[in-house]
Batch of 3 targets.
Target 1
Amino acid sequence: MIYAVALLKALEQMGVETHVVVSKMGAYNLKHECDFSLEEVKALSSYYYQNDDLAAAIASGSFKTDGMIIVPCSMNTLAATANGISSNLIHRAADVTIKEGRKLVLVARETPLSAVHLENMLKLARLGVTIMPASPGFYHLPETIADIVDIMVGRILDQLDIDSKLYERWH
């Protein structure tokens, strides 16, 4: 969840419109991993939706977006996305993103990975979905956890062609 919070903060600072949904377990992990409240997430969001709101704008392919990032992405959400199951708004919005040919980035949250996880990831990768394990590089020699988070968030934003300047590029 630390990546999700940092991503929202970066997007807000850059003035990028965001449409945010947090699952029940996401809200639980937010509090336990970041000591950050759902109300604080809502305050960082341009628009916030309940996960059971399948009538939300982002549930429709006619609602134009630049793409979607699911961070962190549980193996449940990854499996639902890989199999076209739209039982909640996160799943439906991911399904719409794929069917409309838009960029979808899944920042996978799990280790180790089972063969089932890997098969679902491969299925999605073959559809053009970007699978990004939450595994930051260390060749930038980060000195703090914030440095590590910035590198990962910068790499996530790169996938949507958003230049954040959060980390120094290799040269």
Target 2
Amino acid sequence: MTAFVSAGFPAFSAESIHCTVIIEEASGDALYRKGSCAEAFFPMSTFKIPLAMMGYDAGILQDESSPRWDYSAEFDRPKREQKATDPTFWEKESIVWYSQEITRRLGERRFADYVQRFGYGNRDVSGNPGKKDGLTQSWLMSSLKISPDEQVAFLRRFLSGGLPVSEHASAMTLAIVPHFAAGDGWDIQGKTGSGFMRDKAGKADRSRPLGWFVGWATKGDRRVVFARLNVSDRPSDQPLSIPTRESLIAEFPGIAARF
């Protein structure tokens, strides 16, 4: 699907892209897979899940409510983010500056090392071409990319204890990822992510919004891992992550009935 490369960014066809993939946590077997799930895209705020693991493992984050950091005007974020934030609020409300404070405290070397050891996506945290901003921008429409297939494989490794982080880091990450009730007794935990594709000049193409919802769903003693990605061919009046999440929650019981 890649058409050309400009300013370090691949350009994709203008067609809409949709993927839903669900795997069994215990075995890794595919339970449901529909759409284009092998191509890699910017992870956006879905990267808050691995960032939580890094933060807790490195001792930067302590528990569900600490540290609580105050907003600073130098962060230059939208009004909805201009408030004191703790780990639970960070995940629930997708506070970008809190993510960037975690990576700043990690530092370039430790941040890159975690991404490498996690085997996360293409592992490229170099950032935007020529800007040396990978520490705070690499996952935000920049160098780091991951496919839906890679998202579920990564999350399965996390859930099964296959990532190089402490038990505390795993437990705290599980504790702060938001819950959503689905039908037929399924409890869904997951994280959204929204952004835009890049145009030929490498700039954000607001006519091509992108939306993610990734996580896991539990019913009784069974847990499955999912990723849903949508890339639209027209502008949206809200982040595409919202309808992506809500559609997956609404459809999940019907999909799960086929397992």
Target 3
Amino acid sequence: MSRPHLSKRSEHISETRINDRIRVPEVRLVGPNGEQVGIVAIRKALDLAGEAGLDLVEVAPQAKPPVAKLMDYGKFKYESAQKAREARKNQANTALKEIRFRLKIDEHDYETKKGHVTRFLEGGDKVKVMIMFRGREQSRPEMGIKLLNRLAEDVSDLGSVESSPRVDGRNMVMVIAPHKSKSDAKAEARKASADAKGKSAEVKSRRDRVAAEKNAARPDA
């Protein structure tokens, strides 16, 4: 006797309800571009979804009334999965390297360590730069900030400051993150443009198909 109850509970927790699975009298409807349509009867919302060739997806089931949005649910799930995979991939590929400086560093050592920072940024890694203060040096934090700002300026063509200089115990730390390459940025822009054009064509195709089906089902005058 408990299985139906567990099944409904499982569906409520883990499954997004779409189309005819949304069993409420009315919903607060959101259009495909985020526009607020208002509170409409569920039947009307389903009709609007059919006319647009889209799905009606319940996005906020706990709201009163529940919020539902018109979207291509299959494409939404696919793109969400892609974004999640890409985020995991980027997280795995980006390491946090650490370079330590002394406050009174000579020019040769500075250039050597700057070279390490440059190499890490070129490899796509973030760099945690740490200045270690000794004795009375702790009373001169402005000197540490000056040194870190110099380094950030010297590698500004490769990365930017993600975490500004801050005191951490007897040290001062700053994090520099690599810039996205111009080729990556252009590739992302091209992909976004292609996705937008593909979505527009897909919606138009669905609308044409729905219109054709309605015309075929209409009785002859």
